[in-house]
Input
Amino acid sequence: MLSLEDYFRNSQNSGYRISPDGRFISFLAPYEDRLNIYVQPILPDGEDGKGVRLGSPLRLTSETKRSVRSYMWKGCDRIIFALDTDGDENYRLYGVRTDGSDLRCYTPFEGVRAMLIDDLVMCPDEMLISLNRRNPEVFDPYRLNIATGEMTLLCENPGNWQGWTTDHNGILRVVYAIVDGVNMQILYRESEAEEFCPVITTNFKEELSFSLFTFDNRDVYAFTNLNRDRTALVVMDPRTCEEKEVLFEHARYDVTNVSYSRLRKCLLSAYCSGHKSPVRHWFDAGEEALRKRFDERFPGERVAVADTDLAERRHLLFVGSDRTRGSYWFYDADTGAFTFIADTAPWITPADTVPMEAVTYTTRDGLEIEAYLSLPKDAGLPLPIVVNPHGGPWARDYWGYDSVVQFLCSRGYGVFQMNFRGSTGYGRKFLEASYKQWGLRMQDDITDGVRWLIAQGIADPQRVAIYGASYGGYATLAGACFTPDLYRCAIDYVGVSNLLTFMNTIPPYWRPMLEMMYEQVGHPETDREQLEATSPALHADRIKCPLFIAQGANDPRVNKAESDQMVEALRKRGVEVEYMVKEDEGHGFSNQENRFDFFRAMERFLRKHL
Output
């Protein structure tokens, strides 16, 4: 049996990228228990000249307080990365040359969050970013010169702009704005010399977003559910938002992504997130043939293109499944050769893990719910089950490798995850069915899943636990509170406990969207009675089972006060509760030693109570 640390330690190598000229790869690897950035040259190898090998790696960063989680190439000789402070999510942008020199911070502003707008691939010295430096509630767009560090304000956010779309020349052409609190407006301009002008206003429940401009910079490829339930990919005139052509739509799932060739100026594919495998629609026969070649080379695995050079001849592939963390491969289109690069976690093999099964069940009001069930090896039924609702809640679970799932299965527990109503990718009606249903029908979907497991003879009704993070943490507390006889114990990780106080402590840049949150969750005045009735912290007297609560002290999304008040309410009533707070973490534990502490405590807690 693998150790707990094997499941939760940092990957040996991960996050591979390729330089624009295809001469180097970069990756993340541990240095003093923190993920840092490394680069390696790509060298020819083999007598036939078809293979490649990697030169000696050079470490570019030496972060010891917090791991680098995201980075990108900027030109062929510099890498840009982001870091926050102890999980506060106020990310600063840094840059370093690929020889390790000129390490600098581009946005050294206290309490300010930097976000990427456009990396301007074809302009090696500039990129577009946004900062909430002038006003913590809104973000202004800037042009950043990475050679000099100079930033130029492109325009001042009037207070309701939430995002931008650029054309293929890197010009800001589209703004997305909030009007009247719950309506979204698209503003458009032909050039930087013009003002942004409103084109269309829709309710936030309707989706209309421009993915990218057509390659003549005239029309746009847009995702929209206007006049339909499932989001489709269409060609649209940005001046009028008139649909010109439907390119792909699916009867069950929303279209969620599109890929394209910058070099050949064409769409390659669009896809939906299916129950187990992506549902892909091909626009380009050459790309379809290439992906077929990848699938044939790695049968039974899922292959994704992690990165490609500008010439689109050298590809980094990520190959994975539900049984390992995955591996990286190099593919050279000119030679047709595949070269293995690295396993992300070579100490975990398929023999150590169990499959994740895609299952469905029906709720009491007739909704079909897609879910995932993972069972321990050689498990006799019924068995102890950990129910694991996802966070968001407007997100979803996917089929694939999950360290928590595999760890729990290795300790003898089954794990059940479900895409309850409100999970994304299933259409507008399914999403809207979750609005103002926290602790109500959304919770019923989880309860109905547990009862389905019991009816199937899979779950021992006396040994069911619930564990979740963020919204999943709320669902954990709600399950323990409102169905107190269903769960033997519960684990809440950075979860909401009081729907009234939660919305008073959100990050400042969420405040422009507060009216939307009122529509989605409930209004503290007009829906106060419902919010009080569905806030676990206000009904701690109903909870019978032991709880374990974990919280990051610097969490900007779910304030520490959410966990504090829940713990206080439980202890006043004599309910057993274990409380873990990490002072150097935010919305989830990033540092390896904190993950170890959390999952060690989880293992002890489940062994004792389940």
User: Anything to note?
Assistant: The chain is about 15% helix and 35% strand. The longest helix spans residues 592-609. The radius of gyration is 25 Å.
